[in-house]
Backbone:
């Protein structure tokens, strides 16, 4: 019997991560690179592995991930969101714990648009009386 793969899409800011998960030995491939190559920062790797630590399933799955858009922090958040959704699909028992931790909720905060007549979203040009 062929092994079952679980797919989920994670999003954060303008980053989108497509996550394929299958039972395995803890191999990570992110955009054709390893986890340590793609996210060299220890804090970003910790963010990505939070859902696995929560449900005690570390090194039990192989991940194949495509992520694009945004910066490294947004991409890490998108990968975390995608992994959480894939874990919830894999085992429905983990869904309440992931939901309580806030891993299944898409963080909808995005950059506010720049307005005309201003240098940024909120900042105004300096007022000159004379």
Residues:
């Amino acid at each position: 019997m062929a092994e079952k793969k679980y797919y989920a899409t994670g999003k954060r800011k303008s980053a989108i991560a497509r996550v394929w998960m299958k039972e395995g030995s803890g191999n990570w491939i992110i955009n054709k690179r390893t986890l340590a190559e793609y996210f060299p920062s220890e804090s970003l790797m910790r963010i990505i592995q939070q859902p696995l630590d929560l449900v005690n399933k570390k090194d039990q799955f192989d991940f194949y991930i495509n992520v694009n858009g945004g910066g490294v922090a947004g991409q890490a958040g998108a990968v975390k969101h995608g992994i959480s959704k894939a874990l919830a699909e894999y085992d429905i028992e983990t869904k309440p714990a992931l939901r309580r931790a806030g891993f299944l909720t898409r963080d909808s905060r995005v950059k506010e648009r720049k307005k005309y007549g201003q240098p940024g979203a909120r900042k105004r040009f300096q007022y000159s009386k004379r």
Remarks:
- The domain at 6-101 is CATH 3.30.230.10 (Ribosomal Protein S5; domain 2).
- The chain is about 35% helix and 20% strand.
- The mean pLDDT is 94.
